[in-house]
Input
Amino acid sequence: MAGHLHPSLFEEFSRTEAPPSAEDAVGAESGFAGLPWRVAHYPQFRYMGSKHRLLPWIHGVLSGLKFETAADPFVGSGCVAYLLKAMGKQVTASDFLNFPAVLASATIANDEHTLDAGTIRRLTAPNGGGSGFIESTFSGIFFHQNDLRFLDRVTQNIRKLERPEQRDLAKAAVIRSCLKKQPRGVFTVSGDLTRYDDGRRDLQLSLEQHFLEQVEIFNRVVFSNGRRNSAFRADVFAEREERPDLVYLDPPYVPRSDDNCYMKRYHFLEGLSCDWEGVRILEKTKVKKIEKPYTPFSYRKHAAGAFDRLFQRYRRSLIVLSYSSNGYPDLDRLVEFLGRYKGEITVHERPHRYHFGTHAAVERAETREYLIVGQ
Ligand SMILES: C[S@@+](CC[C@H](N)C(=O)[O-])C[C@H]1O[C@@H](n2cnc3c(N)ncnc32)[C@H](O)[C@@H]1O
Output
């Protein structure tokens, strides 16, 4: 299978190729030592706060806990929820943004539906134009005309697919294509982006070429773990019946400087995921941003109370919280809050370096990463 791929993809896959036998973990040479082998297939996203590189550590901690059902209500790029699925757990994945929910529907809830050659042909086929909404709205902002036209075409074709799982899988492929082609991995800068062109292959490929590669990558991610997993869009505090054995909490933390707004950085992916339906574009902004939804985790004066409410909400579940020494409130405060609901608290700690943002920001991003377990 890997032999049909472009060399750089081959490298991505040869590293991650599934062991053919029942051996359930990948070897040390993969960088994913000890993880269920499927996890190494999960595509890495340049997503703020992604825990992709911490998965072996997170897996080590989760493996020591007893649980069958798990929720990941801040699912983001989906890698931790996918780890939980690969561990054989029944997973509920959600996020208050739509595009992480689409990614999770495609990869966590979806047990079997992939995109075959005929469907891929239908997805990329000319379809007589249509509204050209993406081309007319985003012209001169992020992508060249050919790429924008491809996005109009493929998103219209996606709508014609009957199966929602296939629509989500195709959208996931479009989303990751756009992220790869955006030089800085965020949709905050616009116009002439040639100054960021360092010759990377990702910047040379058209979005259509990316899409074809991404479809292959996402097809490989689809599997059934024999459980009924679910994915949806929801605010973590929304009313719903839910009592997972374990909840993995990875909310945004309020940084010392800068903001932590996901919509500001990924509005284009959010729009793609819902065809810009039901959202409000802020027309006066240069990059045609979407209005951001409120979350208490973005504000210093609301964050502490939100953590307390979060722990209260999941007080009947085993709580595993990802956190960083960079965040507000600090570790001691969080442990104090968690202690209101849990008798036994363990803090696992390790150094971590986020590869995100400008050079200065990356330097700031050398932090300690915590996994706080409350039982
Ligand atoms: C740190 S990221 C999660 C990263 C994820 N664990 C990963 O590895 O990719 C935090 C996520 O929380 C989501 N979020 C922020 N406020 C939320 C809220 N009130 N309810 C649900 N999700 C929220 C953001 O959209 C973002 O995807």
Observations:
- Residues 112-222+262-294 form one domain.
- The first helix runs from residue 7 to 16.
- Residues 47, 49-51, 73-74, 76-77, 79-80, 95-97, 100, 235-236, 250-252, 262, 295, 297 surround S-adenosylmethionine (CB under 6 Å).
- The first strand starts at residue 69 and ends at 72.
